[in-house]
Amino acid sequence: GGCQYQMMSIEAQREWKTKHVQEVLLQQRIEGYDTPESFQVLPTAGTDDVYGYRSKLTPHYQAPTERAVIDEDGTSSILYELEAIGFQQSSNRKLVDVQECPIATSAINEKYKLTRQSLYAQAEQGLLNKTKKKKKKRGSRNGALGATLLFRQADDDPETGDPMVVTDHKEYMTTTVKGIRFRYQAGNFFQNN
After folding, report:
1. Residue 7 to residue 66: CA distance in whole angstroms
2. Taking all residues of the chain, what is their mean pLDDT, rounded to a whole number?
3. How far apart are CA 81 and CA 17, in angstroms?
4. Which residue of 28, 77, 79, 102 is 20 to 30 Å from 159, comparing CA positions?
5. Quick one: which of 60, 50, 158, 184 has its CA closest to 112?
6. What sign results for the dihedral spanned by CA atoms 105, 110, 111, 113?
7. Bridge-partner residues for 165, per DSSP?
8. pTM strictly above 0.85
9. Residue 154 and residue 173: Cα distance in Å, rounded?
10. Residues of 168-193 as b/e, b for ≥16 C-beta within 10 angstroms?
11. How far apart are CA 22 and CA 102, in angstroms?
């Protein structure tokens, strides 16, 4: 589940997910599998944990705002402010600043915390407001961009046993589920929770 399902019990979340998979499969109109009776979607299996289980997190931030300020000595300077790093409100696209995600693993929350600190420091220095030569996308008027971040927990590092959190969507990672190893790019869709 995600944040949008936290008002539901874990059992209701899993029932909803099972129903959703069935509905999406029906929408594909696969010959021979086009009625609910023609295939069976097994109930969603999940961890025993209600919190601290999610192995993927994709928070967002908008480009920092720029504000001209006059210093005490009369000189002007630009102040850059990063307003929020977090997730969109359910009713609109405004971001809610989320410092820690209760459903994410502790390893992801630790990496997220460090990334947030780094992004706020970069924003204060104006480093996130350097314009890109690409077309504007969810950015400010000056072309500075916001971004969607990626935090994915892979299998533990085989040498150290430490949790591995991948942040590069192109990096390959391995996740083992019930003894089966899956290798994929971190940015690809892979739902295991």
Report:
1. 37
2. 86
3. 38
4. 102
5. 60
6. positive
7. 153
8. no
9. 6
10. eeeeebebeeeeeeeeeebeeebeeb
11. 28
Would you tell me how many other CB atoms lie within 10 Å of the CB of residue 116? Answer: 20
Return all residues near 34 (Cβ < 8 A) that are at least 6 apart: 26
Convert the pLDDT of each residue in 14-73 to its tens digit: 899 899 889 998 999 888 888 888 889 999 887 778 888 889 999 999 989 888 888 888
Residue 27 token pair:
């929408």
Of 5, 86, 104, which Cα lies nearest the Cα of 49? 104
Q: Residue 157 in 3-state DSSP? A: coil
Query: What average pLDDT score do residues 84-92 get?
Result: 87
- Residue 38 corresponds to which tokens in the numbers above? 């023609």
